[in-house]
Each structure stands twice: as structure tokens, then as C-alpha cells.
């Protein structure tokens, strides 16, 4: 008797019934029973897109691969082959991988996928190429409708920005359920106006404004203390002018959603731009030429080229007889900032590897010693 593992998948949580996928489960069990197979394992993917999520991101698929290597089952059964995925550059090769590892891949509606000749491989690819195209078409239809709704109503769901609240105004969806609309909240909208007034007219900084709001007992939408970042997010949000955004789409101005006048909002954007710090240049620096062997230093752990950073400290020296002059104290250090470890920030090494400017003494080391 063949041992069967079943895989069930739905793309959205709205397709789940009481934390289950009963239609696919029932069809797979009946299909296996008719052939005298025994279902020994089941995997469910709830709210997992077969188009957006790659195989490496799908835990159930990785467990199935591991079980196939350990020879725990003979047949992989799905309701339709697109339950395995909808990526034309990946899913056909996943099916072929299972077959090469001795696992038969069956679909309740489409039968078994075999690889006896090149035509089978072509048909396998065409199937998932078509599934990928259907997902793309669905995405286009959904996005187009969302854009139409945002242009018409200014709100298509989600949480309300600070200064607004959600309430029912009698609008219903295609299923007849009442849906929320965005309206101005009288209490919090006054805080938004105060933030713009302090920033634009009283020239307060975002840190000063956040401290002022916290002293007055105001809290953010999440109920936490205000910070410079949260104040800045309010100042940068064009929704307060009555204009809503959805991706690259900008609506016309909705007067019932406008809290801040256009002139005041543009004044805030100008000041934000004027006070914006320039992003540091992570590429070549003007001090690269002063570092010994700048193009020959690599991380021996991952093979990536190391970067050079310069720490510049400036202070003003004041005297009675001489005018103020700026003195720069420059130190250059090589930091193990390889791309391989960017997920964890700049790699910290102890002690730091410091090279003085115009150094003529060579240094030889293995950077793998500094990986944590």
C-alpha cells in the first residue's frame, strides 16, 4: 500500500473554514481511498500565496522535501497542481525534484505528473507558466479595482491614520456587509494641527514637539509616547491635506478629510527638506587613497570586499587673539561591513583594526577571526 502525504493550500485566510480547508481535504482523501492508498501525513498552508512566496519561505514545502529525502512517503497528493505553487521559474522544478527523489506527484483533478521525455517536461512547465499568468491577471484586476475605490471613496481598508477614525456611513461591499469609511476625529485632529503649528510657526524641532506632546499627556495611535520619528511621520503624511495615496495613485482632494491647509503642509515639507541630513556615502570615500592596500582587503569568511569608513570629528578652538578656526581630527578605520552580514548590522570586532593615514607598514590578518 502506497503511503500518501497531502498538501492543502489557500492564498487568503478568508478561504479557511473553521481553521481548516475541508474541500481539498475531502477530495484528496476520497481520491486516495479509491486507489487503495493510505494517507499518513497532511500539511496545510493557510493564507500562503503560491505566487508571492518562494519555496524557501514555505515551511510546509520544506518539511515535505525533508520527508521525501528520508523516504517517509511514496505519493505527494494535491487537489490541483497549482497548490504546489504558481511560480513559473520555480514550481516546475520542485515537481521534477520530487519525482527524481522517488516520489509520485498526483493531482486529484489532473492526474499524475510524469517525466518520461522532453514533452512531459514542456507540459509541466506550461502548466505552471499558465498558473503564474492567472495569478498575475488576478493581481492586475484586484489592483485596478482598488485604485478605482481609492479614487472614489478615499479609503479601501486598513487602519486609520492619526487624526482620523473609522465609522459606518452606510456603504456596503458586494456581499452586502457594511464597511468602514474614514472620517476626521475631533480630538486627535487638534493634536495634528498643533504639531504643524509648532513646527512651522514656532520653529520647534521634532524632538521638542514630541516632548511637548508627552508632557500634555497625548499618546500616539498605538498608545505609546511620542518620539521624533512619530512626529516626523505626521508631518510627512499627505492625507492631512485630504489627498489619499495608493501605491503610485494619488486621489483628488477630499474636503471632508482635510485637516491641514495646503500652504501649511508645503511649508512643513520645505522645512523638513532643508533640515534633512544627507545620507552618508557608503561607497568610495575621499580618504580611500590614503589607506594601505584599499583594493586588496577581503573578508575570508564570505569573500566580500571590505569597505572603508572615515570618522571625522570637528570642534571650534576659540582664543582671544585669533578668530575661531575649525580643526578636524580624522581617523580612518577598516570595518568588516561585508554584505554577507548586513542583516546583523556592521560586524563588530574587538579590537578594531585601525590604520593611520599615510601608513607605510603592511598588515596581514584573516578577517574570519572577527566574525561573531
Could you give the topology of this structure?
Layout: E1 3-10, H1 22-34, E2 38-46, H2 59-69, E3 75-78, H3 91-100, E4 104-107, E5 111-113, H4 118-153, E6 164-172, E7 178-184, H5 186-200, H6 206-215, H7 228-235, E8 245-246, E9 249-250, H8 262-274, E10 307-317, E11 325-335, E12 353-354
Parallel strand pairs: 1-2, 1-3, 3-4
Antiparallel strand pairs: 4-5, 6-7, 8-9, 10-11, 11-12
Helix pairs in contact: 3-4, 5-8, 6-7
Describe this structure in words.
This protein has 8 helices and 12 strands. By secondary structure, the protein is of the alpha/beta class. The C terminus is likely disordered. A 5-stranded mixed beta sheet has the order 2-1-3-4-5. Strands 10-11-12 form a 3-stranded antiparallel beta sheet, with no helix packed on it. Strand 1, helix 1 and strand 2 form a beta-alpha-beta unit. 21% of the residues are buried. It starts with a strand and ends in an 18-residue tail after the last strand. It has 3 domains: 134 residues, Resolvase, N-terminal catalytic domain (Rossmann fold), CATH 3.40.50; 93 residues, Alpha-Beta Complex (Hect, E3 ligase catalytic domain fold), CATH 3.90.1750; 83 residues, no CATH class.
